[in-house]
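Sample 3 of the quickstart, ligand magnesium ion:
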Amino acid sequence: MRVKSKFRCQECGQQSTRWLGRCPGCGAWNSLVEEPDQPKTVSPAAINGLLEPCPVTEVPAQEEERFPTRMAEMDRVLGGGLVPGSLILVGGDPGIGKSTLMLQVAHLLSCRMPVLYISGEESARQVRLRAERLGALSPGLLLACETDIDQVERHLRQISPPVAVVDSIQTMFKSDLASAPGSVGQVRECAAQLMRLAKTTGISIFLVGHVTKEGMLAGPRVLEHMVDTVLYLEGDRHQFFRILRGVKNRFGSTNEIGIFEMSGAGLVEVASPSAIFLTKRPKGDVPGTAVAAALEGSRPLLVEIQALVCPTGYGTPRRMTAGVDYNRVALITAVLEKRMGFNLGNQDIYVNAVGGVRLDEPAADLAVACALASSFKDIPVDPGLACAGETGLTGELRPVTGVEKRIRESFKMGFSRFLMSSRSAALSGDDYGLLRADTLAGALEMALLA
Ligand code: TYD
Ligand code: MG
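Result:
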């Protein structure tokens, strides 16, 4: 029997029996989303059997038992392993390697427990071929090609595996809803159904979600608030590195990353990322490159920043960045102009973090400034120097968090000098090789070779 559905405006709650381009209630465009007539919700109370308020001290403290996936980078991002009954969204651009990663994780787990892999995108043969290539053939890995969410639920209830993968949420559909698979209504309803299932049966479900080009509508973003954990697989498709980033985690910290390299045999974990990000540094004294000691979660990461400053050929100067924040580069450029007297108004500026990584912490400011100044003046930066510091608007150099970790990693990777703000916390141990500056001007003087 077909359950009736209705359309509801996401802005004001107005209901309609059919889809309308504009909400008659509030006038918002394109805000109506299909929903089943009686949306089912799952309350945490119903699951835990706690129906009356009670003192927090008397809530039974179940130790969250976790089982590790035995893929170290994945476990790090999950916060130590999978929590039973959790729903984990794995998002990313199409073709970035989500299916590959999930198949590898499913394989690792299937050596110890049955795992159900539900593919809505590829045929069973395709998945088998890929599994063969990845060396992920194991009898514990069960495969189903299905896009009807009710059938998926039936399989999950029947087999009841501890872990399942649904690849991808955009291909799943509920036949009660008229809208097409991949639309906001379908995606949300299917995810809600899987959420209820995970919570009531204790099956941990990985949900693969494509980030769509059109502003991420119907993509993983509409699901972020529903699921327990959100992981994004990022990277430049033309580069080999992939970064798995925790964006939300109800069971652990969110600022950990996992680093992988895409190889012919799938994703390979990278245990010492700094070594790899730096291997292809230009040899000799080349102007326009500096090394930033970044911190991703609890992990220090040394990344080369390259800049090219050259006179504008024609018209407005171009400003381009890859891997670093465009607005921060604009700010640093302005500080260099105003406080150091660099004339950059008639220069094109390109800044790039090498290796396809994305640095969004202000601690990379100093390396960006060094690379820019070095390219502008055509003087190389001291090749034995790594740095970390935030630039203030008045040209001061501000301290950054976790400086000790950054320093240790830099010295471990063979750098002999480390440049930072003079207001950085005092360090335990000796100060050998540490350079401190109050201002960006002072720092650049120390960084650039005379
Ligand atoms: P895939 O996992 O299908 O991406 P997604 O599920 O995120 O859309 O990965 C697609 C890309 O990965 C494809 O372009 C080829 C590459 N790849 C490798 O380089 N090595 C491999 O072993 C595999 C399986 C894929
Ligand atoms: Mg895929």
